[in-house]
Design brief:
Keywords: ATP-binding, Helicase, Hydrolase, Nucleotide-binding. Pfam families: UvrD_C_2. It comes from Actinoplanes oblitus. It contains 30 helices and 21 strands. By secondary structure, it is an alpha/beta fold. Helix content is 45%, strand content 15%. The strands form five sheets. A six-stranded mixed beta sheet has the order 3-4-2-1-5-6, covered by helices on one side. A six-stranded parallel beta sheet has the order 9-8-12-13-7-14. A five-stranded parallel beta sheet has the order 17-21-20-18-19. The chain binds adenosine-5'-triphosphate.
Length: 749
């Protein structure tokens, strides 16, 4: 219970903090308006103003984002100091009014205990509504009163966990627990695997880690961006509000299907086909498909050039093919080598006819005797080759033998004729790949398209060299700009609170500014990365990582050569047919055993009653599944029922009424989706359901990573039997609720 005087004291400090926020906002707004008003001047001045305007707009957006719940905690320290903890850091001249939750000074808020208090005597959780303090919860970190409490800020935590769901994930910045904090603040280098059961906060932790890394290593990470991979578009929408609410924008949220720019890949396909496409052997299959497109004529090709018939045989072309293959693995880049070899052969045939010297071996001949049978010299031969190279018939022959291919063309060819992989895939697997051209791409195609792009290669060397030269020019220009602005603290504006608003030189390094100048639309790294297939990220976070195939891992590792990665998942929840047995199996090809494991052990989502039911229900199907320890109980046991479709409809209607402002999900076996969509038309559904609707109908695959106040699972035995990984699927379904679970078995007469 918060005393009135404490509430009033906190309120008065909070008002000071909000007052300062308002001032900062007004300053940023004024500076933005000023920079936008001055449009004249040199090109350099314009660029500089654009950069400044971008910086002020970004700052303004951050101030707006933190309005709600700006300050949520206080630490009283042994030396009498007090620190208020909040979403961003705010200073008043040189005195901190609010410490950013990610700053080292804020860490005790999440990890201090009575046993290890980090000089903290009291930890206070401050609950606010708009700009008003409504509740305070104090924890005295005193050994005598410590008890065996393992939770940090228990009251605030339980209030957050009990709150109704909204269809959008919320940030947990006010109640991060110690084991989660350790993951969030772990060093960014190397691969960190975060394993934990359902509801242990893996996704929440992954998102807060992104925010922490961007804050702590801003210089390294802003330029390259952070990539977060999620399982599907619905999940990405579900988590999309968390980072903006933490005032972070430099993150690209994407599914695997988004990672080949220009080729959207959202076509559904069978799990069996996806599994074959995800196998590591597909690297060899693709290499084979490429080799298959490097041909020599099965029958001699005849090409008529200027009345002369030239012939290309397999023996003529084989040396060219071997030279081109030896030159390197990239098919398109090797085409000029093949082309030169074939043109040499053809030019030789033309030369034999038009340049033959009838007297070359005439002992009485003049001074050309015994030197060469042909009067054409190297320059003539080069002309001949150039003429042949532009001849459409010759080009057509070259294109048939060694075509320049796009990744999509290579894959389309492979799917139309998968026999090319007969040494590597059995007949049933090859049939799973077979497909008519033009039906669109699936997520499992993306790693294959990416692999194909690597095998084929774009000849972008000239473009890269030009980009390098341009970067050097921009860098030196940007450094000049920073030198000038650092020298003159006032940037085109009069301001009496100069110290409060950073100068560009304070907030940007030359390379960042150079990047901004290069990109006149001022897109963030994340936005630019989304359009660039081989963009290399500063850090990659993979959520639901247990679902990724070996081919998907290859793609992600290419996007992160530094291997600065956070891999988040739960092997026991994997529904993919090719799921790995352990993280070592996944990571060994890339980092051997140089990866770290962190485990999350407490389930925040699912109450004890549902966890107990889940453990018992799955004990027979898969004893290896051990649900995590729940943090709370609701006193409401799950219900089970069997009945007709009408009875199911009635049960769902009852649960929908009961859930009130919360959210309800009905999770069904994939093969019943059509029937139940028709029977429950009031539920939102479809391939990408709107989770903000009060009630939704989902398959297990769609429900992965999500949560709802109430869940009704339909036909659990059918889910169990529906796939070799049925126990894992049922585990996912049963652990989605935060409050109530119902399990309904349909009478299938
Ligand atoms: N420290 C915390 N404070 C408040 N809420 C928390 C905390 N940790 C986790 N939660 C909440 O618990 C729920 C489950 O978290 P999350 O979805 O991140 O778990 P998960 O491990 O990714 O689950 P799954 O494996 O099922 O995808 C979310 O509502 C999240 O906000």
């Amino acid at each position: 219970m918060s005393s009135l005087s404490s509430l009033a004291e906190e309120q008065s400090h909070l008002s000071v903090i909000y007052g300062r926020l308002d001032e900062l906002r007004a300053q940023a707004r004024q500076r933005l308006a000023e920079t936008q008003r001055h449009r004249g001047g040199t090109k350099e001045a314009l660029s500089l103003r654009d950069v400044a305007a971008y910086g002020y707009a970004e700052r303004l957006a951050q101030y707006e984002a933190v309005e709600e719940g700006l300050c949520f905690g206080r630490l009283d320290l042994r030396d009498g100091d007090r620190l208020h903890i909040g979403r961003i850091g705010i200073h008043d001249t040189d005195h901190p009014l609010l410490v950013d939750w990610r700053a080292p000074a804020a860490r005790p808020f999440y990890v201090a205990t009575a046993i290890t208090p980090y000089d903290v005597t009291v930890r206070r959780h401050i609950r606010t509504r708009e700009r008003t303090v409504v509740e305070l919860n104090d924890e005295i970190l005193d050994l005598d009163r410590a008890g065996d409490r393992a939770l940090v800020g228990e009251a605030a935590l339980i209030a957050a966990l009990d709150a109704n769901r909204t269809g959008r994930m919320r940030d947990i910045v006010e109640t991060i627990q110690a084991e989660q904090d350790r993951v969030i603040r772990a060093e960014p280098g190397g691969v960190l695997v975060v394993q934990g059961g359902p509801g242990t906060g893996k996704t929440a932790v992954a998102l807060h880690r992104a925010a922490y890394l961007l804050y702590t290593y801003r210089e390294q990470l802003t330029a390259r961006g952070v990539l977060i991979i999620g399982p599907n578009a619905t999940f990405l929408r579900y988590i999309s509000q968390v980072l903006p609410s933490l005032a972070e924008t430099g993150v690209l949220l994407a599914t695997l299907g988004d990672l080949f720019p220009g080729l959207p890949a959202h076509r559904p396909e069978s799990p069996a086909t996806a599994e074959v496409k995800g196998r590591a052997v597909m690297v060899e299959v693709l290499a084979e498909a490429v080799r298959d497109r490097q041909r020599v004529p099965a029958e001699p090709i005849e090409i008529e050039v200027d009345g002369q018939v030239l012939r290309l045989t397999a023996a003529d072309c084989e040396p060219a093919r071997q030279r081109a293959r030896a030159a390197g693995p990239r098919h398109n880049l090797a085409r000029p080598i093949f082309e030169t070899g074939v043109l040499d052969v053809l030019a030789g045939q033309v030369a034999d006819r038009i340049g033959a010297d009838p007297f070359w071996d005439d002992p009485l001949g003049a001074d050309d005797a015994l030197t060469s049978p042909n009067v054409l010299d190297e320059a003539d031969l080069a002309d001949l080759r150039a003429d042949l190279a532009s001849n459409p018939l010759v080009r057509a022959a070259l294109d048939a033998l060694w075509p320049v291919l796009t990744p999509a063309e290579l894959l389309t060819g492979l799917y139309a004729a998968p026999e090319v992989a007969s040494g590597l895939l059995g007949p049933a697997d090859r049939e799973l790949l077979r497909r008519e051209p033009g039906a669109g791409w699936s997520p499992a195609d993306v790693p294959l398209l990416d692999e194909a792009a690597e095998l084929l290669g774009d000849d972008d060397r000239a473009a890269r060299a030009a980009a390098g030269r341009e970067l050097a020019i921009r860098l030196s220009y940007a450094q000049g700009v920073l030198d000038i602005t650092a020298g003159s603290k006032s940037f085109e504006l009069e301001d009496d609170d100069e110290a409060a608003i950073p100068n560009i030189a304070d907030i940007m390094q030359a390379d960042m500014l150079a990047d901004r100048l290069a990109d006149r639309e001022h897109r963030t790294a994340a936005e630019r990365a989304a359009a660039d297939r081989d963009w290399v990220f500063g850090h990659v976070i993979v959520d639901e990582a247990q679902e990724l195939s070996p081919m998907a891992w290859r793609l992600l590792m290419r996007r992160c050569p530094s291997r600065s990665m956070t891999v988040v998942g739960d092997l026991a929840q994997s529904g993919s047919l090719g799921a790995p047995d352990g993280w070592a199996e996944v990571l060994a090809p890339y980092v051997a055993d140089r990866w770290r494991l962190a485990e999350l052990t407490v389930s925040y989502r699912t109450p004890a009653e549902i966890m107990d039911y889940t453990r018992d229900r799955l004990a027979a199907a898969d004893p290896a599944i051990v649900p995590p320890r729940p943090v709370r109980s609701t006193g409401v046991p799950p219900w089970e029922a069997t009945g007709s479709l009408d009875e199911l409809v009635a049960r769902v209607a009852y649960e929908k009424d009961t859930v009130g402002d919360g959210r309800l999900a009905v999770i069904v076996p994939a093969d019943l989706l059509t029937t139940l969509t028709a029977a429950l038309p009031q539920l939102a559904g479809g391939p990408s359901p709107d989770l903000e609707e009060p009630a939704v109908l989902l398959t297990v695959a769609q429900a992965k990573g999500l949560e709802f106040d109430t869940v009704v699972v339909v036909d659990p035995d059918r889910i169990l039997a529906g796939s070799p990984r049925g126990a894992n699927d049922l585990y996912v379904a049963l652990t989605r609720p935060t409050q109530r679970l119902g399990v309904f078995t349909l009478d299938h007469e």
